[in-house]
Amino acid sequence: MEVACPVAPADDWVARTADQVRAEGERRHPGEAPTCASGISPSGPVHLGNLRELMVPHLIADEVRRSGAPCRHILSWDDYDRFRRVPAGFPESFAEHIGRPLTAVPDPCDRHQSWAEHFKEPLRDSLARLGVRVTEISQTQMYTSGAYTPQIVTAMRRRAEIGAVLAKYRTRRAADPDDDDPRGAAAYYPFRPYCAACGRDDTTVTGFDDESTEITYVCACGAQHGPIPIAQVAGKLAWKVDWPMRWAYERVTFEPAGVDHSSPGSSFTVGGELVSEIFGGEMPLHFGYSFVGTSGSAGSAKMSSSAGGAPTPADALEIFEPPLIRWLYARRRPEQAITLAFDQEVGRVYDEWDALSRRVAGGEADTVLAAVYARAAGTSQGLLPTTPRPMKFATLASVADITAGDEVQILRILRDLTAENRVATLDEVRPRLDCAQAWVTEYVAPADRTQVLAEPDTARLAALGESERAALKLLTEGMTADWSMEGLTTLLYGIPRLQRGLPISAPPTDEIRALQKAWFIVLYQLLIGKNRGPRLPTLLLALGPDRIRYLLSAP
Ligand SMILES: [Zn+2]
Ligand SMILES: [Zn+2]
Q: Which of 33, 112, 268, 363 is most buried, most CB within 10 Å of its CB?
């Protein structure tokens, strides 16, 4: 009965799944747009890991739309779930609300309607920037409006069958306090009320009349309620029952889930049985997707903060242009784990993306690669904004670092770096420049930042040998002759050659390489007090001739 969609290697999983979704949607509900579903619980900051829950259905839904057919992508906010725990970084006083619906917990910042809304807003903004269009469905709204009352009554009347299915799949894993599975022979009810007195779900149903649909329940707070028609009682179905109920209600055609949900005995297996037997629907096409991890530089500002190690999509959008984030999800097959790195890897990801962009522009990419690129660069609605002039990320990061973000200096250096076709305004290199700036500030450890010395290091200068002094003289006297990226590069690498009596561009030997290395260390020490740093020509361009002479001149 399970409609699996296995993922074979070396194919275009997005195109293939979209074909299946279109065909399956047409078979189940002819003439209706198929539905791809995502579910997010706004119980705390929504991390990048959760973004796969949205990106996978988005890529499929958008692929269907690209083919000219309509497709619905719903984002079901699980905002009627109970508040389970106070996330790290929030006042312990919120513990008072544990057991209440997320929409009944107060907003931690006093600008939103509730705790749930507080965490929805940043994700909503990120989705808009990523070109992910969804139809939002609030489970609070659905439950409290009575939309699900017929399904709830059905589930309560058929509680014995539901209980038997759940019991059949119950595993021996350690008891999960949030597991709603029936225990032992006690009467099982798949609905849990939110207490009318205290608002929490520390409730136990004590009876349900199948005819009158009246329910009675008690609460840990001491309250006793009922009998009262279930339609008038706040509460929700147990999660393993709620999910298949919604598959049927929303006619979900496709809904992937984290691999942990699709193992044997998981909510998918249970739901697959309940959706057809109880709710008269069909299990969605689905597959499990793997974990999304993140990594960063130890010691950087962001990684040591309280949200450390778990960046949000908004954090990622500060560092990556939106198409790059889409690409990170689109290029990986669902069963492949993804790691989003916030360390030095960021520059490499940009380089790979730029190389792919050039291949596609040059018509050198094969069909699958070109399709992956198109899905990253835009949606069925059009292209996402890009940086008009995509300069190398590492270069922009160095410039942002050396100048500490001074825009006048940044523009001057970028103009020097692009002598053949000078950058006219910083808008040409935005938003990438802003991404580089944010990356340097938040993800580069202070020890790796560049801090130009304010005063000459007189002790170091006094200790220089004869040949080192001569090299500095060659630099300070020759650098303005060709004050450009290329001119400075030639001079810097050529000075050790000139000192050996060789032509400035003589082929490199091991000996020359060793001399260059030692010479560069002297320069780094005198300019920034470290043995390494950004590329020296970039650093020199950033400093300007006067500052260089000041720092390199012996007293
Ligand atoms: Zn708020
Ligand atoms: Zn109560």
A: 268
What beta strand segments (E) does 117-193 contain? 135-138, 191-193
Mark out the alpha helices in 85-138 (DSSP H runs). Answer: 115-129
Proximal ligand: closest to the CA of 217: 2
Ligand 1 midpoint to CA 461 (Å):
56
Q: Give me the phi and psi of 228, to 5 degrees please.
A: -150, 140
**pLDDT tens digits for range 387-397:** 999 999 999 99
Q: Where are the alpha helices (DSSP H) in 177-256?
A: 239-250
**113, two tokens:** 């309607």
Helix (H, G, I), strand (E, B) or coil at 5: coil
d(CA 11, CA 372) in angstroms, rounded, equals 12
Higher per-residue pLDDT: 30 or 542: 30
Task: Give the Å distance between the CA of 104 and the centre of ligand 1.
Answer: 13
Residue 478 structure tokens: 């020759």
d(CA 234, ligand 2 centre) in Å: 12
Other CB atoms within 10 A of residue 491 CB: 20
What would the two tokens of residue 537 be?
């020509």
Would you place residue 313 in the very low, low, confident or very high pLDDT band (cuts 50, 70, 90)?
A: very high
Note the ligand closest to the C-alpha atom of 197: 2
| Distance (Å) from CA 121 to ligand 1 centroid | 9
Place of tokens 């040059």: 362
